[in-house]
Amino acid sequence: xEIAFIGLGAMGTPxxxxxxKAGFALSGYDxxxxxxxxxxxxxxxxxxxxxxxxxxADVLLVMVQNYAQACAALLGPEGAFAALPPGATVLIMxxxxxxxxxELATHAAERGLGFVDAPVSGGPTRAATGDLSIAIxxxxxxxxxxxxxxxTLGKQQYPVGDQVGQALxxxxxxxxxxxxxxxxxxxxxxxxxxxxIAPAVIENFVMHGAGASWMFGDRGPRMVSGQYTPPRSxxxxxxxxxxxxxDLGASVGLPxxxxxxxxxxxxxxxxxxxxxxxxxxxxxxxxxxxxxxxVTK
Length: 297
Hints:
This protein is of the alpha/beta class. It has 14 helices and nine strands. It has two domains: about 1-165, Rossmann fold (3-Layer(aba) Sandwich); about 170-290, N-(1-d-carboxylethyl)-l-norvaline Dehydrogenase, domain 2 (Orthogonal Bundle). Helix 2 links the parallel strand 2 and strand 3.
């Protein structure tokens, strides 16, 4: 099976390495050529464009940051869709809006291509060990073509349905919680800090109590240390994902005041020029918003 991989960032690189270790033939493309070059010693073939990487692919895996990047990679006369062999399958593992996935699936169908949306959760560490959680939706024939890839990348798989976009809907529901948990962790740590409790003590106590969450355990240490580079998960991702959460809520007539509050915090961080930092840096916005307030000792 020939795998083409577009998007070799914080998640894409360990995912590609996992596929290479499993013996897949893999060609890679990224807007940053250095990321592609870094995979060549692992057995990857470097491609200089999205069309080149797609030319012989059985499965094209897309792991870019957002819909704009997906469109740039896939559409147009020089895009991957135009270069893929008939019968190939496009596997979108990026988090984009369900409606956006359906739009891309329509373009794929026009060219005789299969299309599967299979967003992931688990972060770079689990990507490197093939232990991602993967939601999956799409035509069963197309899913079957991708199954060896999915089995390599994730032991925990959640088939959602036959309609493109269903898996992404599930991922967006998940991202509501993930984004809120990060924002809540930032508020909790800074509240305790201003009230005279050392952040490290807060982190340790919470992680051994009922208020613990996976996100608190993962982001909490970075909030305490202030180490936001290199980002393990860029803040820009939750600006995008919580925006999709808001839009999905609006489309079904459901107000989402808690996630909207978290979105406002992340957008404030983006406006402060923090999109390239780790999303744990949102605690700096909490601190900025609290400047000038009395501190209880």
